[in-house]
Amino acid sequence: CFHEEQLEVISGVGDSERPFDLIAMVDGEVYTHIRGIGLAKIVGSRLELLDGLGFDLKTNAYLPHPEGILIASRYDGLFLYDGERIQPFSSQADELFNKHHIYQGIILRDGNYAFATLGGGVVIIDSTGQVIHQIDSKIYKLVNESVNCIFEDASQGLWLGMPSGLMYVDRKKR
């Protein structure tokens, strides 16, 4: 952490030197996943393991949700952390997420969620898990349906980072 012109290193939990997955801030709190250990939160200048959750999955997104934090696991779909427990979060996209793994997720300006997948394009769901839209080669001329990253611009257009380059999707012209 960098605070008051001082750099402080926050190390793993206990004597662990295991790598961290994604680190993200949700509602002012910083969360990460420590491989082989589980979900943790940065409290002050230390990591606090969220004990008893048994959550040791590769994570690719932590997003604010009306009931807590929506966690995207690369290989295991979506989960909801309510501050005490982590439960699977069912969505209409579960089958797609199992086949085409989640690579990144963002919350959109309209409150929906967009998930980049490896081979399934982009899936947009609402907070209840209903699919709002899918950006794939059936409607859009995606050269490759593997999407590595998503960015939403001020006009709610989506920029998709793909292995073959960038693509812009104007969501207002569906």
What is shown here, in short?
By secondary structure, the chain is mainly beta. 3% of the residues lie in helices and 47% in strands.
State the end-to-end CA separation: 43 Å
Helix and strand pattern: EEEEEEEEEEHEEEEEEE
Based on secondary structure, the structural category is mainly beta
* Radius of gyration, CA atoms, in whole angstroms: 17 Å
What quaternary form is this?
A: single chain
Low-confidence stretches: none
With strands numbered from the N-terminus, the spatial order across the biggest sheet is 3-4-5-6
Described by strand count, sense and barrel closure, the largest sheet is: 4 strands, antiparallel
Q: Specify the helix fraction band.
A: under 10%
Number of strands: 17
Strand content: over 45%
Task: Note the total helix count.
Answer: 1
Gross morphology is globular
